[in-house]
Amino acid sequence: TQYLSQGKIESRDANRQVTGGYSGSDTAFNLAYSRRINFSVLTGINFKYLRSTIESESAQSFAMDIGGMYRLPLQGLMAGAAVQNIGPGMKFIDQRNSLPLTLAIGAGYQIGGMMLALDVKNRPYDNETTISIGTEYAVFSVLSLRAGYLSTLSGGISGGKTMDKQWSDISGLGAGLGLKVFGGYSLDYAFTPFGELGNIQRISLGARF
Question: Disulfide-capable partner of 90 in 59, 62, 72, 73 (CB 3.0 to 4.6 Å)?
């Protein structure tokens, strides 16, 4: 389960006078299943129920992610691909917005207790591509430290024509940690700068059974 709250947002009328405030939040419930086809190939699917609320209005939808991983002949090297956010979109009142359909490919290389990773994602509806690199280091068997960097390649529409794509400003460095506890449970924390919107902190709980 994921929950994101925007807190209290200031509202204004047509004359830009403050009229009070409103709140908004987003919630996602996930159910995932994965299977190892053989030693080299793994596949998985994730079903999601999404709900978004703005003041007294709300919208909900279903979506899914599908993907797979392949263990390459070089020891410690893996590659993967996924299609994320396949679904009908969210409808607020009489307006429907598409989900952020994402095509992703990535690779990871394990060197001792350190994992190096590269991830490329394309969002065709937004005409945007992101490239991220990251690393995870297992300090102890139960504790892993993580760090990453994200940059964005985006394009726009002008006069009915697609503008040349340009690298945007650095989205920022991110950092986090993962903690494995007894019974197959895990706790993950991540800190990510989000430009003018401030910083995002994520806490995730997981269970393997």
Answer: 59
